[in-house]
Amino acid sequence: MAKPKRTTFPGHKVTATVRSVKGKCSWGHEEGDTFNINCQDTAGLCGMFYHDIFPYIAMLQFGGGLPEEWGGPDVVTVVCVDRTNRVTLELCRENE
User: Fold this and answer.
1) Is the pTM of the predicted complex or chain greater than 0.90?
2) pLDDT of 30-58, one tens digit each?
3) Based on the structure, what is the number of domains in the chain?
4) Is 7 a member of any domain?
5) Contact status, residue 12 vs residue 96, Cβ threshold 8 Å
């Protein structure tokens, strides 16, 4: 696999934390895993999950946000499409 040519990306840093796993994730994610993710780097997520959450990653990376009553502008909770082996991630924008 080719190594990324960039190590820095535009916008805010977005951190993903695995909050729970129902069953066994086929990609090996476990509760408590934490990793950086952005619009240019899937951070090891399967394509289906990354595809579903891409709009939220872009929103957080480039300054958008959800209303306070939905959890606030800097945090989004997302769930994998595999309902048998459901992974729940918390995406958090780090304001530097």
Assistant:
1) no
2) 999 999 999 999 999 999 999 999 999 99
3) 1
4) no
5) yes
